[in-house]
Amino acid sequence: MIRKLLVANRGEIAVRVLRTCRELGLETVAVYSEADRDALHVRYADEAYPIGPPPARESYLRIDRIIEVARESGAQAIHPGYGFLAESPSFARACAEAGLIFVGPRPETLELLGDKVAARRLARRLGIPVLPGTERALDDRELLTAADRIGYPVVLKAAAGGGGIGIRTARSREELEAAIPLARREAKAAFGDDSLYLERQIEQARHIEVQILADSRGHILHLGERECSIQRRHQKLVEEAPSRALTPALRKRLCRAAVILMRAVRYVGAGTVEFLLDPEGRFYFIEVNPRLQVEHTVTEAVTGVDIVKAQLRIAAGRELPYRQWEIGPRGWALECRILAEDPARDFAPSVGRIVRLREPGGPGIRVDSGICEGMTVTPYYDSLLAKLIAWGETRGVAIVRMRRALDEYQILGVTTNLDLHRAILNSPRFFGGQVHTRFLEEEKLVPPPPEDEEVLAAALTAVLADWRRRAGSRREETVSRWRLLGRWEQML
């Protein structure tokens, strides 16, 4: 039995897990750094304990301190969320040694899947297509030789990587020579391992992933696929489920491949198998993320399955309450990641105090947020503030709802990427489903840095619009309601 659970994370994912725990009647424990003393997840939990200074390595990555808090608070289980220690075999093993339930895969599974090169070899042995590339980590000279053999462009990846970190694309030998030291430093800083390998770059690839649930009694099922093709520097921005790119037959083959791979490693828990899809409809395995994904929300929206609840059920040794034939997508869902970044200034992180927050609502809208008014966004952690999810009976309805929700969303005090999301959702190519992993580069939707006069004009416009709303004035209609109705009917 799990009666009390500690969430070893922060931000929106900590709040997300805490909410499911409250629904299940579980007592909850939060941990926080000095920078997060007033954070939303700290306020939401039943108990909260400080674990160190702001830098993650001195707080959220302190295995010993987190285990100590779990014992002190009387928690029986620890949920790692994503990031930080979620994929750490050492953390999973420390939990087991302390008599605590780790809500995630076994340590040996994390070790196997944490080595991306080993995971590629396993997929190849199982007959699952993989991209042309190297079968082991290489030194600098070997990487250059292998790239000449594979052919440019190539993708340089961290063997211990995840979350888009430690990835560089090279279209020539010169670019690869420049990218290798950068990728090694990034991989060493993020994972403590600077091993690198190569894969062939697929032009106009789509990023498709399959959500898996597996219990300790041998039951394994998939919850369908998500598409995560709209990315910025290999970091996902917009996700949707299902994918327009898959035919029923291709979807069946892709999901079957994901189940075969996870069954081969005797996987237990929630996990994601990631693939690239080329323009000819061929898919290639790239990696497994053995944890809860940021974008799990769109799968929840179209299947009705609470994935966090399923994780807790599996961790408690219980059987999954579903069978494969019971799981199927209903409608369409989109997710926009709301980040404290400035797209006009090369996505520079933004910090400051949130002085005004207005979150959208209404039919089909969900907000998973880790912020509140008065909270300070610091430079110590990931820039993700919240996730905005829209569901609709069709993709068109989901897009219309997302557009409306983005227009309602207000965050003042820090710069966000809300305007970029508005541009993406209004792009004809996005509406037509013509997306791939270089969509942002090709569409050039990122605005140039505004001039000082433009900033002042925008501020005055915002103040005037707010004054008019408060005064009750109505904007003159410039678009026929009948035309809007016609557009709506075409989307149904």
Question: How would you portray this structure in words?
Answer:
With 492 residues, the protein is an alpha+beta fold. It has 3 domains: 4-103, Rossmann fold; 132-200, ATP-grasp fold, A domain (Dna Ligase, domain 1); 206-443, D-amino Acid Aminotransferase, Chain A, domain 1 (2-Layer Sandwich). 37% of the residues lie in helices and 24% in strands. It has 17 helices and 22 strands. It has helices at 11-24, 40-44, 63-73, 89-97, 107-114, 116-125, 140-150, 173-191, 248-264, 296-303, 307-315, 395-408, 418-425, 428-431, 439-443, 452-471, 481-491, and strands at residues 4-7, 27-33, 47-52, 77-79, 101-102, 154-158, 168-170, 196-200, 206-214, 220-232, 235-241, 269-277, 283-289, 332-339, 341-342, 348-349, 352-353, 356-358, 365-369, 376-377, 384-392, 410-412. The strands form 6 sheets. It has an 8-stranded antiparallel sheet. The longest helix has 20 residues, at 452-471. The model is unreliable at 473-492 (pLDDT under 50).
Q: Give the domain tally.
A: 3
Computed CA radius of gyration, to the nearest angstrom? 23 Å
How many helices? Answer: 17
Instruction: Summarize the main sheet.
Output: 8 strands, antiparallel
Helix content: 25-40%
Share in β-strands: 15-25%
What structural class do the secondary elements suggest? Answer: alpha+beta
Q: What do we call the CATH topology of the largest domain?
A: D-amino Acid Aminotransferase, Chain A, domain 1
Oligomeric state of the chains in view: single chain
**CATH homology-level superfamily of the largest domain:** ATP-grasp fold, B domain
Q: Name the poorly predicted regions.
A: 473-492
Q: Tell how many strands the DSSP assignment holds.
A: 22
Strand order in space, largest sheet: 13-12-9-10-11-14-21-19
CATH class of the largest domain: Alpha Beta
